[in-house]
């Protein structure tokens, strides 16, 4: 009696070529760009650039309320981060439009950063759980194979003893 186990059945892998497929150049580039660190870093840089651009724009649009670039940068940083102390506010319509746009973009960027960090944490947890599950399945498979090997040996021994008993009875 011969027993063979299909490893794809045991591991749940139905595609035999899945382990040999290599990602394309574009897929590798997307993975590199889309990893959590680069996305978070990119959003943070965009956050700072947005604040600086808005500081320059508010300085040009509302020179009455923002007499220096430093004051405009301070306002832009507290606005883009949604802190908004209220110590400096634009009073012109154009200044308020710039402030409104900056607030909406700031809230959006904070949401993206939060989503990125959350996604990374969830992916790491899922990867760890999948690895533990795979290790458990491998251990279960080994246990089953060992049990089947012992069963096969026991059956062979019983078959041998049965043969000896039959030869004594007939002989």
Write the layout of secondary structure elements.
Blueprint: H1 7-11, H2 25-33, H3 36-61, H4 69-80, H5 93-170
Helix pairs in contact: 3-4, 3-5
Tell me what you see in this structure:
The protein starts with 6 loop residues before the first helix and ends with a helix. It has 171 residues and is mostly helical. Residues 1-13 have low confidence and may be disordered. 76% of the residues lie in helices and 0% in strands. The radius of gyration is 34 Å and the shape is rod-shaped. The protein has 5 helices and no strands.
Care to give the gist of this entry?
The chain has five helices and no strands.
Name the descriptors.
mainly alpha, disordered N terminus, about 170 residues
Low-confidence stretches: 1-13
Question: What sequence of helices (H) and strands (E) makes up the elements?
Answer: HHHHH
Largest pleated sheet: none
Helix content percent band: over 70%
- How many strand units? 0
Arithmetic mean of pLDDT: 81
What is the distance, rounded to the nearest whole angstrom, between the alpha carbons of the first and last residues?
A: 27 Å
Summing up helix and strand content along with how strands pair, one would put the structural category as mainly alpha
Dominant shape? rod-shaped
Tally of DSSP helical segments: 5
Strand content: under 5%
Rg over CA atoms: 34 Å
């Amino acid at each position: 009696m011969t027993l063979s186990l299909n490893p794809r059945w045991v591991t749940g892998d139905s595609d035999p070529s899945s382990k040999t497929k290599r990602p394309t150049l574009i897929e590798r580039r997307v993975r590199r760009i889309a990893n959590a660190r680069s996305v978070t870093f990119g959003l943070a840089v965009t956050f700072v650039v947005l604040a600086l651009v808005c500081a320059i724009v508010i300085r040009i649009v509302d020179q009455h309320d923002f007499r220096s670039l430093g004051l405009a940068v301070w306002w832009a940083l507290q606005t883009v981060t949604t802190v908004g102390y209220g110590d400096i506010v634009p009073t012109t319509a154009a200044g308020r439009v710039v402030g409104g746009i900056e607030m909406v973009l700031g809230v959006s960027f904070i949401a993206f950063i939060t989503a990125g960090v959350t996604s990374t944490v969830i992916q790491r947890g899922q990867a760890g759980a999948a690895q533990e599950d795979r290790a458990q399945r491998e251990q279960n498979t080994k246990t089953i194979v060992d049990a089947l090997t012992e069963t096969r040996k026991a059956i062979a021994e019983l078959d041998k003893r049965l043969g000896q008993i039959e030869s004594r009875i007939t002989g």
